[in-house]
Structures are given as C-alpha cells and as structure tokens.
Amino acid sequence: MDPNAQPDRLSDLPDVLLVLIMSFLSFKERAQTNFLSKRWESLYLETRDLSFKESDFLTASVYANPIRWLKARADFVGYVRRLVDRIRDQPIETFGISISYPKPYLELIESLMAFAVQKRVKSLVLDFSNLVWRTYNDVNIEKLVVKIPQSVYDLTSLESLEVCACKDFDPSKLSKLGKLRSVSFGWMELTDLPPLLETSRLESLTMKECLVHDLEKISSVHLREVAIYNCDFYFMCIFNLPRVDIFKYRGDIMSFGFDQMNTIISEVELDFGAAEKKNDVSYDSYGIEAGMICEFLNNLLDEGRRTATTLTVCPFLLKVIPRSEHPHFLRPMKTKHLVLKTKLHPKEFNGIRLLLLTCPYLETLTIDLLPPSPIATASSYAGIDPQTYWMQNMSYWCLWEALTTVIVKNFVGGATELNIVKCMLRSVGERLERVELHMPFDLDESRKTFALAKSEMLQRSSMNVKVVVHNS
After folding, report:
1. What are the domain boundaries of the chain?
2. Structure confidence by residue, pLDDT tens digits, 7-24
3. pTM for the complete prediction?
4. What is d(CA 354, CA 81) in angstroms, rounded to the nearest whole number?
C-alpha cells in the first residue's frame, strides 16, 4: 500500500448520503459513477431522481458530425432503455426526458411517459426542443410529433411539470391537479391557459419562446413567481398577481398592463435586448422605445407606489431610457438593490446615472459586467468620454442615505469599472461600508495579478471601506 495515498473518505460515507450526493449530479456524471465500482453501480439504481438529457450525453463535437451524432443518439437511447428496465421496482419522485428530433423514438418516449405515470412522480420534464433553435420562429409547428397522453394530464401526484415542443398541448387539462405548484412551457403554441391559472393553486409559471393565443389577462391569487422569456402575445396582456414575489421578463417591448400586483415585489428582472436586435434603427432614434420602457417600468411599479426590492436591468434599457420624453419620464423608485447588467459602453453611462438618481433608497448596487471585457478602453461617444465621465462632480448623490455595499461582478481592473467604483467612494463617503469585487473564474494569471493590484489600489484610496476580492 502506498503510504502517501490519500484516504478515500467518500467511500466511507453511508449509502443514503451517497445517493443524496448523486441526486445533484447531471445525467452524464451519474452515468460515469457506474464505472467506479459495483457499489456505485448499485447506488445509481437506488436514486429517486432520473433525468435523461441528450445534451448531457452528447458533446458539441458529436453534434457537428452527423455519423457520430447518429451513433451517439443510439447509445444514449440504449442506455436509457437498459437503465429503466433495471429499476422497475424503485420508487421515483423526479423524472425527465430531453431529446431533440424525437420522431424515431416515439415508442420509447410513450413508454417513458407511461413509466413516469406508473411511478406517480412528483416532478416531470418532457422536453423535445432542438438545440439549434434560437427563437420561436425556428419552430415548425407541423413537425412537432410528441403528444402528451391523457394519463399525464390526470397524474394527481404532480407538483412540478415542464413541457417543451409538444403537439396539441392543452394546459387547461391540468387545472384539476390539486398538488401542481410549478409549470414551465416552451417552444410551442399555448392556448386556453386561463382555466389553469384561475382554478389551480399554481405558484410558479414560466413561458419560454411560446406563441400565446387568446390570453388577455394573466390572473391568479396564488402565483408567486412569473417568468416570460421571448414570447409573442396576440393581444395586450394585463397582469393581476396580488401575491407575486418574482417577476422576470425577457423579450421585445410589449404593451402590458399591471392591475392588482403585490405592493412589494422581491425581485424584478427586465431584459429588452430582443428589441435592439429586432429594430434596426440608430441609437439616436430610440425615443419611442425609451418611452415604452419607462412606461412599462412606471406601470409595473404603479408610479412608485409599488416596490421592487431587487431590480435587474439590461444594457439596452440603460442605453435608451435617457431618450424618453414627457410624459414618459422614469419615476422615482424604492428599490433597495439595483443590478446593472452592463457592457460599460459610453452609450449606457447616462442611463446608469439616471437609474441611480431614481433609486434614492439603495442599500446595495451590483454592477454585472458583460462581455466584451471593459479592460479594453472604449472610445468616446457623443461627447461622453469614458476616461473622464465618472470623474465629474456628482455630490448631489449624497442624498443616498442607505447605500452600504457596491458589488462588481466579472471585475478585471479596467479603467471604466475602477472609475465608477471611485465615483461611489467619493459620492457616498463614509456611509459606504463594503466593496466586493468578483473576478471571472477563467481569468489567466497575468490578468488576475493585474486585477488584484487594482483592487489593492482601491483599498488604499479609501481606508473607511472594506474591499473584498472573490476569485471565482
């Protein structure tokens, strides 16, 4: 025996803990544990969570080679068949099947759905979307082939359901499932949704890349979380969600109304990047879009009478909101945590400043830096110089009474990000307690050393503030 060998502490754990650990692994990672030992192979069969994801099994290089792709899919399907056959007597709580181009495997998919129904699973994922799809427009509705059987609609044990790219899906048939609390729909047409929302006790609703018919109101007294990603609505939709805690929207600028909403919404996330891709107009022509976005936010927060405790916004919003004109100016907000997703382009600077000025009750400011890296100096735009903009006198920001923490994600020590942090240090003064700098996990050693040196410079410039560096 090698005296220097490290003890295998993992194998000393009881089976019940190992099975729990395996439940957090991906499908591919779980499959790999079979090769460790006979004990691990038997442990895999004891798991109560089964999730078969084609994308976990097939690598990117396999997708690029048609012959290897066909063989890998056959291996994936064969593995699924063998594993399911071996655990016929094992209780299962979570079951998922995710496979693209499902037509050759309809018989298998039907048997897997029957297996999930027989096991009376609590959580079910049926995802037949395609990795090459980018928007709903890439979906050919006529080629969707998987139909949800009535037995799934009648599965009273269901607490969570995700359905993607299915044919003739009818959400109204789920309205009698008394335990159902979370649903997610994607890559298909949605019709007859109100019966599910109005009669069930759903707490979470997610819609992604869906064409939504005949839905003029999303109304529920139970929904706590609503997420809408790149969906196309036929009509103006009104939200009536008196208990909602989390509201996320990503997509084009839509005409939404907000009726009875929760007075305090814990988390609001808005991403209108799709509008920038869709509307091929110059930055100077974004006045209409700016007014629509400001009106969207003002209506959501009821002209300041509702609160978004945490508000997350996108670069496009930062670019256009300063171009809004009366009567669509952005109203003051009671937000306590503002998250700015930004590329730190000079086009975004005025929007950053405007949002900061409309949030006088801020306690935490997060600057989430998006690629390209701001370490590359941006050029001036419309008289805005990134080297000097944040050095201006902004002493009126001293109205902030509660700001104590500034967080910078993906910090690399670039000039503009440093200038913004220095501006916070000057403007907020002694009330600011902490600056957290999160470096990217893939930063090479030379750039990491550079970023650390810049963080130390920030610490020396203000001894009243604690600068904390997180090396992801």
Report:
1. 262-335, 341-347+356-472
2. 556 666 665 566 566 666
3. 0.88
4. 57
